[in-house]
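#structure-requests
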Amino acid sequence: MTRHDTNTCGRQNGFSRQFIILFGLWAGFLGSAQALPASDNDLVLAIQPILSEEKTRSAYQPLADYIGKVTGRKCTIKTTPNFLAYWSEVTRTRENMIYIDAAHFTAYRARKQGYQVLAKVPDAVSYSLIVSDSNLVFDPTELTAKRVATLGAPSIGAARLNGMFPNPVRQPIIVEVDNAETGIKMVIENKVDAAIIPTPIVSRAMSQGTPINVVTTTEPMPHIAVSTSPDIDATTAGKIRQALLEASNRTDGQAMLKNIGFPKFDPANGGIYKNQDNILKTYWGF
């Protein structure tokens, strides 16, 4: 029988975790440095890393162009490689920032940094736990000790997955992925047993014939929102808000909405997202 030194293993696991965290923070810092405005007047649009960086830039460039057009200020896109790097970016204090991201991040910045919530995607959003259509899983508990892909902490997907397994001795094997598409691909290729993915992305994949089934869907929360840093003046913020709310009635706005995959934007404020960031404290002590 092979004997394992638990102290050594603990030190190695601790070192590995520390290395991953430091690397993620370094990646976030490097990405942030590359995305600094070219001038003090430029706006920066930051998007949470649900898609790959390349696909995020491609999808949201029309929104950046639209904001630039209505404000008369250049708007550049800021992406990050994963949620650990994104969290590092979220907690920084920066000027000229516009974020479009999930409810818990929106709430955190409104409460901690004074961001103004301008508009939101209609309705609410949930996450779905999926398996391949050949994998007969009917309850999350059947995935104990199985490999489950998720966007990394502090994404909502990681938090919701954690909530499905409250027993610390009956946990799945977490496989962190950088974007939702990778999670779906790993399910199809049987590299993981399941994945937890934003439901709209799951619905789109299933409509395209992707061979996956839904095991369960989480409780919905307010859909993603657009918010601006407190240094952005009221006139500029007002122009952005009005342009977003009118986008579905404008030719250029309709093209933008089609590209980012949303039907329209609804009015929103910080009250809608109040306490949505509690999930950060509950799961990770942030």
